[in-house]
Design goal:
Length: about 325
């Protein structure tokens, strides 16, 4: 009998998975798997379980938000023998699930684990840590993850602009030298992002249109420090329109990049705390982890429309509450 390790963060996304938990396990058992369940108890618990027990199983499935996925991916990357990974998104933003075309419907996502196909995705290395889809620093990192959820739901992308405009007085310029390929850039940046996802912080990535999850390349975006409210507004508008404004932004595809600064700079990895660093070495491990995703293009398009409809529904519900 095939063995399946199910790692679940029951607290993700306001306990979304709890009503579906037993039926999902039943689906796996009915498909012929001997299922071992581990519910996470603390930060880094999912990482420890994946790293120390993952190689004993034919399939690892994780359920939770982007942070849980990050931990499981980081754990599996430590293994010489890496089982394929199934993902049941149960968080607030579920950025990487959107990129992979995995449904936000719990049972549909579980069915995808059983009927989808493994797809080898790139994984990032950040100094001595791994990350699944984004490493970022600076002011707009806080905006994308700290914008109140109700504000996001009610006003959509306008919430991002509104919160960003409020942040000008508190934006700290980060003087950095960025080295990649044969280029060296030294400037004061308000924000920087190295990503492998079409969605970041619940919003579509500005680089998402040409994103490939398995090409060995990350999309890097650097935003220069705005000098005034007009420049900040232009930058935020560029994010909303998903267009790089070359007056204030620099973008490139990179497989390796080095950041250096005189002061320690705070980073986030997959939306979680990434520590403060003066030197950061970022690289891409091409096609490092196999994650199961839908194979039918019509199904992937259906999931895309599902997420768009969900966004509209949430906005409407909050407007009615108002």
């Amino acid at each position: 009998m095939k063995r399946l390790l199910f790692i679940s963060n029951l607290k993700s996304g306001k306990n979304q998975i709890k009503p579906h938990f037993s039926s999902i396990i039943d689906m796996f058992v009915a498909a012929g798997y001997e299922v071992t369940v581990h519910t996470t108890q603390a930060v880094r618990d999912a990482y420890e379980v994946a790293a120390h027990r993952g190689s004993d199983y034919d399939l690892v499935v994780c359920s939770g938000g982007d942070g849980t996925l990050d931990e499981v991916v980081s754990g599996l990357i430590c293994l010489e023998k890496r089982p394929p990974l199934g993902y049941i998104p149960a968080g607030t933003t579920n950025d990487f699930a959107k990129s992979l075309g995995i449904s936000s419907n719990m049972t549909a996502a579980a069915a995808n684990v059983l009927h989808g196909a493994p797809f080898a995705i790139d994984v990032g290395v950040f100094n001595d840590r791994n990350f699944a889809y984004v490493a970022a620093f600076g002011a707009f990192t806080d905006v994308s993850w700290q914008t109140p959820q109700q504000l996001k739901n009610t006003f959509g992308h306008l919430a991002y602009l509104m919160e960003g405009l409020k942040s000008l007085p508190s934006i700290t310029p980060h003087r950095m030298t960025v080295e990649f390929d044969d280029e060296v850039i030294t400037d004061s940046f308000a924000y920087g992002m190295v990503t492998n996802s079409v969605s970041v912080g619940g919003f579509k990535s500005i680089n998402g249109k040409d994103m490939e999850l398995d090409d060995g390349l990350f999309e890097m975006l650097l935003v220069r420090m705005p000098k005034n409210l007009f420049e900040l507004q232009a930058i935020m508008s560029a994010f909303l329109l998903q267009k790089v404004d070359e007056r204030y932004m620099f973008s490139a595809k990179v497989d390796h990049v080095h950041f250096s600064s005189e002061e320690e700079i705070s980073w986030t990895l997959d939306g979680e705390e990434g520590g403060c660093w003066r030197e950061v070495e970022l690289s891409n491990i091409k096609q490092a982890i196999k994650i199961i995703r839908p194979v039918d293009k019509a199904e992937i398009q259906k999931v895309k429309e599902e997420y768009e409809a969900l966004d509209i529904k949430e906005q409407g519900e909050h407007l009615i509450e108002k």
